[in-house]
Amino acid sequence: MTAVDLGLPGLGGLAGVPTTDEPQKAKDYKSDQEVRWCPGCGDYVVLNAVQSFLPSLGLKRENIVFVSGIGCSSRFPYYMNTYGMHSIHGRATAIATGLATAREDLSVWVVTGDGDALSIGGNHLVHTLRRNVNLKILLFNNRIYGLTKGQYSPTSETGKVTKSTPMGSLDNPFNPVSLALGAEATFVGRALDSDRKGLTEVLRQAAEHRGTALVEIYQNCPIFNDGAFDVLKDADEAASRLIPLEHGKPIRFGKDGEYGVVRSGFGSLAVAEVAAVGEDALVVHDAHADDPSYAFALSRLSTQDLSHTVTGVFRSVARPTYDDAARGQVKAAVEAKAPDLQSLLRGKDTWTVLSD
User: Fold this and answer.
1) What's the CATH code of the domain at 69?
2) Where is each Thiamine pyrophosphate enzyme TPP-binding domain found (predicted)?
3) Mind spelling out the 3-state secondary structure of 221-284?
4) What is the model's pTM?
5) Number of folded domains that form the chain
6) Among 207, 177, 180, which Cα is nearest to 49's?
7) In this predicted model, what pLDDT tens digit does every residue of 251-287 receive, in sequence order?
8) Is residue 274 a contact partner of residue 260, using CB atoms and an 8 Å limit?
9) CA–CA dist 224, 143 (Å, integer)
């Protein structure tokens, strides 16, 4: 049975979620709980950005749910005046999958960290992405385990000295965007906690997307990994390191736009000086390309040493969602008058066990 046969609803990420005519403000999304993160933590900035952004969706607060796992970022649901659940380590995406499948009327958001999502929760994450469940995942990446006091995480750079790697990490870190694209995620974006405008725009597009939307957020941990992304926030350095994406526009960056992205050998991409290659050689960003190979090549431009970091929306394509298809199957079964549970349990594939 195809997605068309199931009569799936429109592709809008908010389709089916009740809206409100009452004007909303950021304060409406602030709970009565004291925010308890370390002073200077990047989580404050992200929380404020999300609270300021949500009113623009025009949704009823009781139809918005935040599900988190375990970690510093996972305290997020306490601070949102919406429904929420602080779940268990690495399982937030699994719990959110069940919720999104059972309740089409909810806008479901997952808040997780690089340790929570990519270590114990890695398997749940990739399966959520490939299934394309209609939920949004905010992956806070500070390249460290903060809650458990500074061990290296799956995104810590090779050679990172931490409490658990006193001689330097031997692991090659994940690139979360590459991982998501390898799982054929239908929406993948990246933003910095300090870039309020860029973060809000990626969040807006993620909310409008129907399917799994993963947004990686570079976020500073001032206690155990302070300054991890400072080089991307320095006015002089950022211009030559950050590569912003805008659909339909040539990929160009630098203080005066002197650098750009061009095609290289074997389907890869590279950074070049515009004066040397000419403007016509620059790649025009296509976030809607059906084949994820192009977006994956873009993700490989981002390096461990942050000499280049791509931000914005890498990929945004339409594909039937798991939860829509599941509800369609249930509807089809009801309409076909499928056998009830007792009939199935007492069907032909049963045995009678005889005892002495």
Assistant:
1) 3.40.50.970
2) 70-217
3) ECCCECCCCHHHCCHHHHHHHEEECCCCCECEECCCCCEEEEECHHHCEEEEEHHHHCHHHECE
4) 0.91
5) 1
6) 207
7) 999 999 999 999 998 899 999 999 999 999 999 999 9
8) yes
9) 10
And the tokens for 319? 């594909």
Domain assignment present for 92:
yes
Residue 354 CA to residue 209 CA, distance in Å, equals 56
Q: Which of these, 228, 219, 240, lies nearest to 308 by C-alpha position?
A: 240
Q: How far apart are alpha carbons 326 and 156 in whole angstroms?
A: 37
Q: Is 267 a domain residue?
A: no
Q: Is the pLDDT score of 6 beyond 60?
A: no
Spatial strand order of the sheet with 64-68 comes to 83-86, 64-68, 107-113, 136-141, 213-218, 187-192, 309-316, 242-244
User: Residue 346 burial by CB count (10 A; 0-12/13-18/19+): exposed, middle or buried?
Assistant: exposed
Closest to 74 in 3D by CA, of 100, 113, 114, 102 = 113
Instruction: Tokens for 238, please give them.
Output: 């950022």
| Structure-token pair, residue 318 | 């339409």
